[in-house]
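Researcher: Please predict.
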Amino acid sequence: MLIKRTFDFAHNALEKYSREDMFVTKYNGKWEKTSTREFIALGNKVSRGLLKLGIKPGDKIALITTATRTEWAVMDLGISQIGAVSVPVYPSISPDDYNFIFNNADVKYCFVSDIDLYEKVMKIRDNVPTLQGVFSFDEINGAPNWREITDLGSDEATQSEVEDISKSINTEDLATIIYTSGTTGKPKGVMLSHLNIVSNVLGSNPRIPRVKGLEFSDIKILSFLPICHIFERMLFYLYQYNGYAIYFAESIEKMGDNIKEVQPHIMSVVPRLIEKVYDKIYDKGTSAGGLKSQIFLWALGVNKAKEKIGKPSGLKEIIADKLVFSKWREGLGGNIITLVSGSAALSARLNKMFQNAGIPILEGYGLTETSPVISVNSFGKIKVGTVGHPLDNVQVKIQEDGEITVKGPSVFKGYFKNEEMTKEAFTDEGFFKTGDIGHIDEEGYLHITDRKKEMFKTSGGKYIAPQVIENLAKASKFIEQIMVVGDGEKMPCAFVQPDFNFIKNWAERKGLNIGTTPAEMVKSPELIARIGKEITYLNTKLGNWEQIKKFELTPEVWSIELGLLTPTLKLKRKAIKERYLKLYNKMYGHQE
């Protein structure tokens, strides 16, 4: 069938790939399967139930879930095929942001996964005049349950109304409003049409690897990134398009157990997760002691020395793979075809290491406003340090100042209720301004170098690209987060959030008494000196004008809850600087 709207992916799956395990979610310790046929039936019930509640095309319905689950997928189908607009919201944002989003979008109904989110929404309910009801997926005493909607729609007599509305929905119609977390200011409502998302799925699909001897029906996905983010949501539709089974992970904390149980073939990841996985592997390998640690470190050396990415060749590589890297693959379930990485830049060093360990990573690039993929690597054409070739249906133009601009069917309709900001987002030629700096090399690969807005000038007039420096610094096991500062100052400096778990183990190995809490550790002369060595090494890779002259250790873990990271784990630079203003003034000798 011809796919024009997001809900067409589900109906196409029923026609071509009907399976017993289209979606699988764990409830009370047991994986429960939902077949393609059951999924469509439930989606139709939701559509009929919402129509009985008075929902009309264009009405906004919020979806909030702590972890993605089958109910979210059912609601998405039920909402979209009657022309209503889904407003997926991050579970971790503040009540103030909930209040803003619900009022800005004129949300009529909201569906949440659990009691914590239900209580969070109920706190702002009276501030949202358009909000008529809040339903929960979990059973909560005194709270309306989402099953009330499916019960309301159990009578199939009105299915013809659903189908009539569905047929009338155009590809250009609004499908969803996704509020970007933003590193400053209020969230922006990105309007994405059915065409935006569908064109991105179809444009990205050729980049997904096909493995000889493995049927589409064999492939299992483990989905754990927030589905409110367009990266995971676009892949959610792409997996449906290919007939894959989608298992929803319980949580980040239970990822290890879920990987062993599901043994997935494909997972989408963010760079921070890959960094964490490698840190665990390294700690385990180096703490084994004796011959085991020696073999582990030798294998890492073989991996690093390998010039061309590919299967092991030569006796050393074969032995290293057998003794060490095969265990890495087993740790990821043993079936991994590829990890798809997005949301932020992945360290080229780690990327190469995983590729050479037989765990291919397809690194891509995009924004919410581009639905999201602009470019992505593909099997046989992986170039580490790049985000691959632009999609065939996307036009990329590098402006004179180096900014990456984009045109194509996946570029968004605009910012909801903000025509001025929408106009500012495009060039006179109609290219969307990504705000990222980069270039396309002679082989057509796109390189991202920095965020345009995050680049700054020192008082000496030298430009500093902080992300480049920060990505290099995070190769250190001692540094979990770092933010380079110095806009208008005479030199670059940095806030450093140490990796406190690694440092505890390091201090124990060295017999150092540096305290047990982050606040105690950052005052330790030994730790300050050791991180100083890391910064000194970092500076050897930088030009004189961009070298870090001073740094201060921050006494806590930067988190979403503290308001220092966005829900996609990007630095909220303004908030970090404000929180550690005393340390900033200390580095630059400013009077407080």
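Model: The longest helix spans residues 36-52.
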